[in-house]
## 1
Amino acid sequence: MRAIKRCKRHKSPGPDRLVPGLGFRIRDRTLPKTFLHAHIQALPKVASPRNGLDFRPIAMLDSDYKVYARVWSSRFRFLLPKLIGDEQTGFVPGRSIHDTIDVMDLLLASISASGHVDACAVSLDFSKAYDTTFRPFMVHTLEWMGFPPIVVGALRRMHEKTTACFIVNQQLAAPFQVTRGIRQGCPLAPLLFILTVEVLHRHIDAGNGHGGLMVRTANDESRPLRSASYVDDTTFFCRDQGDPSASKQLLQKFGKASGLKVNNAKTTIIPLHPQAVHEDPDFTVLAAGCTTRHLGIQRSVDKEWQRSENAIQAKLGIAVSRTTVPIQRIRLVQHIAIPKILYIARHIWPTKTQLQRMQKLLQVFIWTGTFDSSRKSRGWVASPVAEHPLSNMGLMSPMSRNVSKRWQLSWFNGCISSDSKPYRLRRNASHGCQVVWSLALQRTSDTRTACGRQDGS
């Protein structure tokens, strides 16, 4: 700021055509008008969109605005572990999406041995979560959590008098004013959303909604587990059939205050006990023997790996038209196929047949550019040589005889203990692949009230 003060406001610009006025605006706590305008590109969420709800609006913001927002994001990101409860794992340093999935997996595996016959999980679906959030509620939440006035004021100005225009047929439509919602495409968007949703989790944790399921902590203490969330994917854990009704009342109050309303048609009640029978007039109840997806994971080994194979073929098939040589297709496999395979293998280990089929599929794609398994897929470079980096005359091929070891390592990493995670898993050697779970609630009274502190915020 001292350097900005020493600059003269109206000096002629250099080759970059930028004048010092931008710095003075930020110093004076006023933002350029370009910061408040965005172009919106609607991306289809389904293969054949039929109405406007089948599109995801992405706000394309100025690069200088993103730099400014990234500065604020990096400054208070380190406070999130103290402000956000263990129920939320998205965009919080030290937490992972796998923590939320592990909780669901282990509850499904252990609830059948308990006496909670009516136990269920309610998978919520917020309708247009980012686009419907009330901005005044978001600002009040930041004030309630103890953010300094200079921070709250900066974030409020970034969401005041914003305008946008849609890109339709490569042309800009007429601009319109945006009065609600968090700007998708902004580096601050996920952080502001999880801070807003934290209000809901605080009410649930206080027992205002439902009782939750009792779990054992690392200290062999019984604690209620009421919810788990990854950004806008929220799951409630209910002990009795009357708990979902109590949760509905809380969700309605929260929706009126925050603008986040639950889509009843897409909200699913998942019975956790095989003998459970649930009925609900509003939410969809998962029938016995059926499966559902949770954070990209299908609750069935065969269905999930078949679906992932189809998804990989679809994504690689779109990009293969831009490739001509195997080294380009290797890059596609590295950036599209391998991350998805490792993500699924972290929770659902494939059978030997599925593993060999996936290896064969990718090997054929790399060397032939097709998915025809009947074609000979033997490469013109031996696998041990192809996996070497380019500097060693290799191709950096991810497909080799040792690729399954990498997948095994990904799965094993999810089974070893990690004291830094709120949900810790331990590998039990006497039971092979059996996973023993415990909930390590590390939240103390100080961290629970950290949101009210003015000094450290």
## 2
Amino acid sequence: MNLRKLFYSMFVGILILGFTFNLFNGVTLPEDMFYLVAAYGGLSLALMLHSNMLTFLTVRKVFITKLMSMFIILGLFLIFFDMVMPGFVVTGFEIKSFSSGFLTIEQYTVDKYATIALISVTAAAIASALDYLKEE
């Protein structure tokens, strides 16, 4: 992978992660610029590691294998960063109550690990879809 592809992949990964962090507001990012860059850089690197892992395991690189490997790696990175990085905190997020005539949803809070799973699945699905579209 040359340097141009690396920066392109990291930039796309940072955009995907920023979108998913705004979508699920259960992640508190660090205030310090060094830790913020390290968090985004490390998590976008986690989105890029799937290719090397699948090549090492000699698995065909199709949409579902990319999705699953990105989901697992990103989830592990999120748990690791939550444990060791100062200022990077993953908490549960609240889903507000909703009522539309016959359907009523009460307000509830999603668990911390469910938040990590939702963020990982969403980011992996978007990254896999973009990667699949780039190949075609």
## 3
Amino acid sequence: MPQGLSNAPATFNRLVTQLFRPHRAYAQTYFDDIFVHSRAEHGKSDMENHIDHLRAVLECMRTNKLYANADKCIFGAEEIPFLGYFIGKRGLRADPAKVKAIVDWPVPANQKDLHKWLGLANYLHKYSGNYAELARPLSTLLKKDAE
């Protein structure tokens, strides 16, 4: 698909979603990413099923002339990085590099710096049961008349 068309991402996403619909029990798509996940069932191990699922997905790609960049592929992993998180058998977890960036961030010296830090810290809000309560005093400092 030509790049630069204003609706190209949505059109491509719709195409990929439709093409992989028959595989949705074990393959999810997100724009140009395809996630294939497998578990032990039907008398086969999780890896045996995974190989079968990968074959089906790769065959669908071949049939529809979709190509993958081998350097960007991750096969047989227990977890994978995705949108700043890691997804695996045990669910979603924060990317340690993002956590380190928040921890190592210098103390904000002005509202602009504080706004940047809060934006980054908000990344972890789902891992803190009381993030809003913790962030409220800092958010108050972003008001126009705050000192």
